[in-house]
Amino acid sequence: MIQIEGLRKAYHSRGRTVLAVDGVDLEVRQGEVYGVLGRSGAGKSTLLRCVNLLERPDAGSVTVDGVDLTALPERRLRRQRQRIGMIHQHFALLSSRTAAGNVAFPLEVMGVPRRERAQRVAELLDLVGLGDRAHAYPAQLSGGQKQRVGIARALAGRPTVLLSDEATSALDPETTTSILDLLRDLSQRLGLTILLITHEMEVVKRICDSAAVMREGRVIEAGRVRDLLARPGSALGQEIFRLGTPPDLPDTTIVDVTLTDDAVGQSFVADLVRRYDVDASILAGTIETLADGQVGRLRIALPGSAEANAAPLRHLRDAGLSVEVAR
């Protein structure tokens, strides 16, 4: 659905060049929610604006639904952008228009007839749970309601792709949860492909099927969230699980074991103790709920070196667990 290859974008100011996006490759499958995670300055906002060519990249290509946007002349690009909706961090609503008027605005630009426009606006406001607030102005709406209007407006042109620019960072935790659940529901009901950027780990955990981690303009890892968390040394795993630095224990092997699917809740540590007569100690652990299930990580201490524990470690891996020797 979205294919980004070799994307590069630099800014020049006062004799300095800042490389905001540095050779990014990314693939977002149809119908999935894909999160790009990174701290401020990582390049994720520039990447998002390059997807609909609000920022034209210096190099590389962006293909959306089989169309290479970077190869289109301006007139065709404007038409193609109608298939890409966007929701903004600070809502970007017109204060002089009601909720209905804000949702109607892109339809007016597209030349949709008045009666059809009114019907579409009513449908969209009902879809986001604001059917009774059609005549309210932005100043009369809460932050969550404003963002729901923004989402309805982004869906006005029946897009196949929805871009989200830190859509929940200005909201309180409870409202954030409701907006994320709405986006997930819309993705499933409408078959929307959603590409979102965020610096909030909770966003990735709650609704993302796949994710990429950006640092200094580069993607350092990308893939299905569940697969990334099971990967040894994963940056996403370190951010989500936050088990800290493993302790320095003499003559001890410390391993991090990642559990997914049916492994969560299984007594594999007790089985290890019985089978190998090993004194295994649990040092830390956590279980996180993702969009498609649960995933957990345990930090276990085994007496002796990694070589001496080769058989127990092999047993864990043979059981389908991801095992990383932490120290």
From TrEMBL:
Homodimer. Forms a membrane-associated complex with FtsX. Residues 2-241 form the ABC transporter domain. One of its GO terms (molecular function) is ATP binding. SMART domains: AAA, NIL. Signal peptide: none annotated. The keyword Cell membrane applies. It comes from Planosporangium flavigriseum. The keyword Iron does not apply. This is Methionine import ATP-binding protein MetN. Belongs to the ABC transporter superfamily. One of its GO terms (biological process) is amino acid transport. It comes from the Bacteria. InterPro entries: AAA+_ATPase (IPR003593), ABC_transporter-like_ATP-bd (IPR003439), ABC_transporter-like_CS (IPR017871), ACT-like_dom_sf (IPR045865), MetN_ABC (IPR041701), MetN_ABC_transporter-like (IPR050086), NIL_domain (IPR018449), P-loop_NTPase (IPR027417). Part of the ABC transporter FtsEX involved in cellular division. Has ATPase activity. GO terms for cellular component: plasma membrane. Gene3D superfamilies: 3.30.70.260, P-loop containing nucleotide triphosphate hydrolases. The lineage of its organism: Bacteria, Bacillati, Actinomycetota, Actinomycetes, Micromonosporales. Keywords: Amino-acid transport, ATP-binding, Cell membrane, Membrane, Nucleotide-binding, Translocase, Transport. The gene is metN.
